[in-house]
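User: I'm preparing a small set of examples for a lab meeting where we compare how different chains pack in three dimensions. I only have the primary sequence for this one, and I'd like the structure in token form so I can line it up with the others. Please keep the answer compact; I'll paste it straight into my notes.
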Amino acid sequence: MKISLAPVSYCWDKANMEHFYQQAAKSQVDTIYLGETVCSRRRLLKFNDYLELAAMLKAHGKQVVLSTMALIEAQSELTELKKYVDNGEFSIEANDMAGVQVAKQANLPFICGPTINNYNRTSLDLLHSMGMRRFVMPYELSKAWLNQVINHPNKPNFEVEVMGHGFIPLAHSARCFTAKHFGLNKDNCETICQQHPKGILAQTQEQQDLLRLNGIQTQSAANIDLTQELMVMLQMGVDYFRVSPSSIDCLDVVNSLASKLAVSTDDALMQSSLSSANSQACNGYWFGEAGLQQV
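Assistant: Understood. Below is the structure token output for the 295-residue chain.
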């Protein structure tokens, strides 16, 4: 099993983004996803900036994938999507069906992102026939669901990736909740989300952490931690364990996981939880429970 780094979900400025990926280039991560997946109004990095980062990471021996938007709302965003697909060098993670269709028309293989609603093996096999070579399991699905997909009726001809660490993207909306919070409209948002590099924490009236507002994206307040399930995932046949970055500290998670996988002993993997002492960790979806629970 390999470690992958999901695209940055937040609006970091160009200098911080470049610093993060320079450090990622030195890490033990195998595959790195790049690109703006949340909001096209975040223009601090352009398409060519991502290509330069991709070339730098490739030179350091990383597998690089360019990730597309999860919600296509305008012709300009469709035009940008086509630029990503037609980059001529790097693989694509399609995060909506427009990305799948454009990649299929170009006769290019693609990775199916977690925001495409794949809920059964039949739809996955259909996407595989269209060029899908790997899929990232939707965040709300469980270990039992994935086990059925992998083992019934035959082993799949595509790879499987599971997000195991990071804040969970729960939904995308045409509205921008961060702009609304500050009394701004979406078209004149002043890219206010760049002032909140981990989103805005929302609580219940009882002061319980509930959600994290990240522009048009809603995330979990708690950090998913499936690091204790590494051995289970290996036995199931999961190919990639995905870490979603919220700070440069996530690279410590990446390196720790890679080291444990290199040792590859049952004891090392079973004792690999990195957040078990943190009350803000969660893993409920994986066990078929409410997502915010820590089972």
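A couple of notes for your slides: The radius of gyration is 18 Å. Residues 25 and 57 are 6 Å apart (CA to CA).

User: Perfect, thanks.
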